[in-house]
Amino acid sequence: MKAIWNGVVLADSDDTVVVEGNHYFPRAALNDALIEPSRTHTTCQWKGEASYYTLNVGGQRNPDAVWYYPVPKDAAKQIKDRVAFWRGVTIEP
């Protein structure tokens, strides 16, 4: 699977975990050169506290388009060390 935004591959992996319709990619598959840390945090009742990255691709920013759970709850342990995408990022085989 590939995560793509503005024609650029952000992450590429055959090892994704699907939770609630979202593909979670291994964190190591994400291109670090395309992300910036974000101060945003949200809470999911069963997954825990999410943190975010902002995409920066060719000078275009997509705030908080990547999320992850640094310390997921036990019910979501399968997404530890993984990232997911939204806000216009497409997931393709």
TrEMBL record:
Residues 1-87 form the DUF427 domain. InterPro entries: DUF427, DUF427_sf. It comes from the Bacteria. PANTHER family: DUF427 DOMAIN PROTEIN (AFU_ORTHOLOGUE AFUA_3G02220) (PTHR34310:SF5). This is DUF427 domain-containing protein. The lineage of its organism: Bacteria, Pseudomonadati, Pseudomonadota, Betaproteobacteria, Neisseriales.
